[in-house]
Amino acid sequence: MQESNFVPEIILQEAEEAPLQLLPAKSREQYEKVFSEFNEWKAKRGVMTINGEVLLPYFLNLKWKYAISSIWSKYSVLKASINVNKNIDIGKYSKLTAYLKSESRGYKAKKAAVLERAHVEEFLTRACDKKYLMIKVISLNLLDIVDNKP
After folding, report:
1. Residue 147: in which H helix or E strand, if any?
2. Cα–Cα distance between 34 and 80 in angstroms, integer?
3. How far apart are alpha carbons 88 and 35 in whole angstroms?
4. For residue 42, how far is the Cα from the chain centroid?
């Protein structure tokens, strides 16, 4: 008995949509945006392929807009997107990863300012009630929640 190579249209459609499920659902829009920006950059330069020689200049351009931590984030998102959409693993491009690592040398992440309890208490005692009463009430409730957490 001979096997048929016929694949129903519904199966082909499901197979085409399946890779999109591989991207994180919560941040799928972000992944699509980064991938779209990369494709627009390629189109403006008449580039049809994706390889290390294309990606390195792309990331060199990002250097002027973003901190290296953001560039690493875009690299990670683009790596997953290209893998899912084009079945290309950009992690194998050693010049690209070497460039990103060299840019990361000496980078110090900025620590976010933390609002301490003393700051909140100072605000509660010094701020004008007429202007900040609602914020004070909310702040007191939040402090109460923090103090009484299990």
Report:
1. helix 129-147
2. 11
3. 13
4. 20
Burial letters 112-123, b for 16+ CB under 10 A, else e: eeeeeeeebeee
Q: 147: burial class by Cβ within 10 Å (0-12, 13-18, 19+)?
A: exposed
Selection from 142, 101, 145 nearest residue 124 by Cα: 142
* Domains of the chain, CATH where assigned: 9-104 (1.10.150), 117-147 (no CATH)
Q: Determine the pLDDT at residue 106.
A: 82
Q: Are 99 and 56 in contact (CB under 8 A)?
A: yes
Residue 32 confidence (pLDDT): 93
20, 28 contact by CB (below 8 A)? yes
pLDDT in tens, 115-137: 788 888 888 889 899 999 998 88
Residue 98: pLDDT band with limits 50, 70, 90: very high
Give alpha helix (H) positions in 18-128.
28-44, 52-62, 68-86, 94-104, 117-126
Quickly list DSSP for 100-135: HHHHHTT--PPPPP---HHHHHHHHHHS-HHHHHHH
